[in-house]
Design goal:
The protein contains eleven helices and twelve strands. The chain has a single domain, classed as Aldolase class I (TIM Barrel, Alpha-Beta Barrel), CATH 3.20.20. By secondary structure, the protein is an alpha/beta fold.
């Protein structure tokens, strides 16, 4: 029996050949590094469940942003740990809030980074939920004005993009209207359009100090079993004025990323979340996985599924590994 005419292994024989025909070419161009801003000065408190990640004061945030820029990463997304919390997340809208001051400091340092700000209440409320509480439930409409004011305060501080992650219905429209009314009509919105109620957020809640004090977030974040619903959520956010959309988490929802990519011709992000990061770090620390190969395979897979923008705590390591 003769060998077949087609031998796919011919193009896998050397790294040169593999690189020549590679379909997905991983670069740092779409990687965003998440950061956690806390009060104080000269503060850098490591997050135990996320090795290499820290809660940092504004001055330390700026220093790490210098490193991020030097590595060739295009941007960061900021999450805030406020000095005080209350039932309605009042501190989230204040001009001197931790995120607002961090944005201003990054701007003052003349760093050429795209600065994205997370817009949500969970880090700022004493109950840890993403909306205000009325009669024991998360009140959707009562939350919208606060989110819009928070986004406006980020815009005034100098944010390049605001990213609502709360999953309240109608929040993109409320934010778009508020920004437009105050002459920020050119500020883009990156909507966490399909954000699932996931077990993979555990380490983030330590990092952001945002664990709910009662119940869970399943009444507003999406059911992990639903994929068609994600397309509806994305369509609604785009109708309300979102410029970009995101799927979160990434790895358990690669099918959702692919569906969104196939249906909508807009820039799309995916969040490689804290639990995904922590699992790799823990396995690598125990010698069970090759960290570099594993991370590059994960990020390639997320990009291959269709994500243009990938938020990942691995971003700095990836940049180092991809450097010529």
């Amino acid at each position: 029996m003769s060998f077949p005419t087609h031998r796919p292994r011919r193009l896998r024989r050397t790294e040169g050949l593999r690189g020549l025909v590679r379909e997905t070419r991983l670069t740092t161009a779409g990687l965003i590094y998440p950061m956690f801003v806390c009060p104080g000065t000269n503060v850098r408190q490591g997050v135990s469940s996320m090795p290499g990640v820290a809660q940092q004061s504004v001055d330390q945030i700026v220093e790490e942003c210098r490193e991020v820029e030097a590595l060739g990463l295009p941007g960061v997304i900021l999450f805030g740990l406020p000095e005080s919390k209350d039932a309605t997340g009042t501190s989230s809208t204040q001009p001197q809030g931790v995120v607002q001051r961090a944005v201003e400091a990054i701007r003052k340092a003349s760093l050429k980074l795209v600065v994205i700000t997370d817009v949500c209440l969970c880090e700022y409320t004493d109950h840890g939920h993403c909306g205000v509480i009325e009669n024991g439930e998360i009140a959707n409409d009562a939350t919208l004005g606060i989110l819009a004011n928070q986004a406006l305060s980020h815009a005034r501080a100098g944010a390049d993009i605001v990213a609502p992650s709360d999953m309240m219905d109608g929040r993109v429209a409320a934010i778009r209207d508020k920004l437009d009314d105050h002459k920020f009509e050119n500020l883009p919105i990156l909507a966490y359009a399909a954000k699932y109620s996931s077990a993979f957020y555990g380490p983030f809640r330590e990092a952001a100090q945002s664990t709910p004090q009662f119940g869970d977030r399943r009444s507003y974040q999406m059911d992990p079993a639903n994929a068609r619903e994600a397309l509806k959520e994305v369509a609604l956010d785009l109708e309300e004025g979102a410029d970009m959309v995101m799927v979160k988490p990434a790895l358990p929802y690669l099918d959702v990323i692919r569906r969104v990519r196939e249906k909508f011709d807009v820039p799309m992000g995916a969040y490689n979340v804290s639990g995904e990061y922590a699992m790799v770090k823990a396995a690598a620390a125990n010698g069970w996985l090759d960290e570099r190969r594993t991370v590059l395979e994960i990020i390639t897979g997320i990009q291959r599924a269709g994500a243009d923008i990938i938020l990942t705590y691995h971003a700095k390591d990836v940049a180092r590994w991809l450097a010529p």
